[in-house]
Amino acid sequence: MKLSSIINKDCTKAAVLFNSKKRALEYISELASEHLPKHNAHEILDAFLTREKLGSTGIGKGIAIPHGRIAGIDTIFAILVTNQSGIDFDAIDNRPVDILLAMLVPEGNNAEHLKTLAAIADKLNNKEFCKQLRHAKDDDALYQLIALQD
Amino acid sequence: MVKAEDTFLIQNKCGLHARAATVLAQLAQQFDAQITLYQDDKEAPGDSVLALLMLESSHGKQLRVCCEGPDAQPALTAIGELIAQKFHEDE
Fold first, then answer.
1. Fewer beta carbons within 10 angstroms: which end of chain A, N or C?
2. Where would I find the HPr domain in this sequence (chain B) (predicted)?
3. What residues form DSSP beta bridges with A67?
4. B24 vs chain A: nearest CA distance in angstroms?
């Protein structure tokens, strides 16, 4: 699976500056709602927060994959954000998070979801790729990294 | 070096998704043992969520768990129980 198949060109945001998990998720929800006209930002934020309550999506190495299931979308919709400094995310290794790959996932279809997670994990497990993501100076540079990686 | 290994069936509906992988990695980190999971031709260290996700272990898959170190046996038992208990999920 190509990352560019789930992340639109205007859904990469580089070097943003949020100081909390909540604020970062609010921003991502607002951005997502601009692309998903049937869903408002509040509803999307709820989906993310519901999932975070079950356990942090901070999976270690400064990476978080906040996600939520929402009805009425056909395909996975993702947003990639890099933060200038690490945010406390209650991550598994207690490290602050500066790469957020947020996903909104259609209801059901567990096999497809696992396949997407595996593909994303494969990319993010590459230290050099993560380093490049962290150093992307603007949104376009961040998107180009995604497109090139594919 | 103490070694212990066994194969477990993934029984929860969602498989080894992000939350299940995180719970497993958190459990693996508690033991003084090197834990490696194998599925088909893929392998993952038990304490890495990213690597566990790359296994793409779905419902019905067989996961081989190998533990090596002083805590090998208790680690294997605990991981086996977690998988059997469907990662504390309802279905």
1. C
2. 3-90
3. A103
4. 11
Tell the residue number behind the tokens 């050099």, with chain if given. A128
Domain boundaries, chain B: 3-88
Give the span between the Cα atoms of B17 and B54, in whole angstroms.
Answer: 10
Exposure string (b/e) for A42-76, b if CB count within 10 Å is 16 or more? ebbbebbbebbeeebbbbbbbbbbbbbebeeeeeb
Q: Which of residues 32-91 of B touch A (CB under 8 A)?
A: 48-51, 53-59
B11 touches A: beta carbon within 8 Å: no
Q: In angstroms, what is the C-alpha Rg of chain A?
A: 14
Q: What is the CATH number of domain A3-149?
A: 3.40.930.10
Q: pLDDT at position A112, please?
A: 86
Complex-level ipTM: 0.91
DSSP A63: E
Question: Where do the domains of chain A lie?
Answer: 3-149
